[in-house]
Amino acid sequence: MNRSIARRLASMFALVALFVFTLVGTGLFLVLRTQLEHHLRESLDDRTQIARIIVYHAVNPDKWRMAREKLTDMTPHDGSTVYSVTSADPRYHFGTPVQGTVKDSWSGGYARIAPTDGGPDMLTSTVTLPANAGRPEVQLQVASSYSPNLRTMRVFGSALAALSALGSLAVLLLSYSVTRIGLAPLTRLTRDASAVSPNNRSQRLNTASLPLELNDLANSFNGALERLDGAYCRLESFNADVAHELRTPVTILIGQTEVALTRNRSVDDLRHTLQSNLEEFERMRTIINDMLFLARADQGERATGLVEVSLAAEVAHTLEFLEIPLEEARVHARLQGDALARVNRSLFGRACANLLMNAIQHCEPGASISVTIARGEGAMRDQVRIAVANPGEPIAPDVLEHLFDRFYRAEVSRTNSRENHGLGLAIVKAIAEMHRGTVSAHSANGVNTFSFSVAVSAMSTAGNVPATRANANAAGVAGDPAYSSLAKGKSA
């Protein structure tokens, strides 16, 4: 069951208040008990001093009779104070000394006694008076009852407990109200977040009036909405592009088949129709394979079947396959640098082919494409970067940072849709990540450079889909008919 934050905070505040009240109350209780004990002893000392003066001057039987009357007058009827005098002479006796269990004693003749008759504890003070004239040596005991102290402590403790409980309850109610007021921005934030829907993707949380503690949360949520909105827009665009790409070959297939079925055809005509249909099927297979490859890359698949090769030799091999497209575009490629690295040759060739085809499509006739292979430095020393640079129109920075995103198109038009279905650079990024590398793009001084890197000693990850299926067949390099069609100058 979901618990209310306001109730939880109010309960915590009430518990803290109860703890503080209990701590303060205990301290006050101990201080009051100590002070009452001190006052009781001072009162006992005063009574003992008066009784001592009276007994001390009772030097004969007549004066002793007067002393007994004074002691009797001083004894209260409730028994809270008791006077007693004992001596060897039976004539000099008064009252009965308090008898019982001594619970505590102090210097100076003080003792706390629990009477044997079960009454309240008594604080006693016993002094010895030496013989004076005709009076023998006597022992004077004055006892005061703890009953008033105990009654005061009991009333004070009950009042303190009641006030602590009432104070904690008041803190609970007040803190709940204050917490609800304090959480009002969170309630408003929740209401604004609930208004976000697929039909209202532009809705964002208002951070202007939020407190600092919620501002970061709201900004993070708005950032997530921005990313989701961008991904949703790219997905919509991708769906439209894929539908367009698949609709064209399907329409061609249906049209050619319908024409072939209208009348009898010769074997050569049917062979020509099947050959044309095969080309469209190959195009459809390329699109589907690219989508499957990206889906597997999304699941964290790593490159398998790694072998240590010369990257310059692999790039040169790819350039040989792209000889016809280079000649048709009337551009030439220049290769510089070399490094050894462990890569999946099919995947590496596909990434190089995609970057080179991207450069060919955006080059003017007579331009030169530069391919550079270089080992990283510093923190990137375990990476080898392959950069493909070509002269071209400047690319805006906000476009550069999205060029390798899946489903992203810098141009919304589809004027070259038969040569490019918008996944080439996304596949390059996926292949780089499968080799524990990165991608980058920058545009400066009329030159656009796209690059990807691979780890020098990227290790195969156990449990991946076999390379024969995921890494070669889905990537579609040298052995793939789609790649072969590129080498022959026909788009795939």
UniProtKB/TrEMBL annotation:
PROSITE patterns xref list: HAMP, HIS_KIN
Matching CDD domains: HisKA (cd00082)
Residues of the Histidine kinase domain: 241-458
Enzyme Commission number(s): 2.7.13.3
Positions of transmembrane segments: 12-32, 155-178
Main location: membrane
Catalytically driven reaction(s): ATP + protein L-histidine = ADP + protein N-phospho-L-histidine
ATP-binding found in the keyword field: yes
GO molecular function, one term: protein histidine kinase activity
Every HAMP domain range: 180-233
Class in the EC hierarchy, top level: transferase
Keyword annotations from UniProtKB, A to Z: ATP-binding, Cell inner membrane, Cell membrane, Kinase, Membrane, Nucleotide-binding, Phosphoprotein, Transferase, Transmembrane, Transmembrane helix, Two-component regulatory system
Cellular compartment(s): Cell inner membrane
Role played: Member of a two-component regulatory system.
Name under which the protein is recorded: Sensor protein
Species: Paraburkholderia translucens
High-level lineage: Bacteria, Pseudomonadati, Pseudomonadota, Betaproteobacteria, Burkholderiales
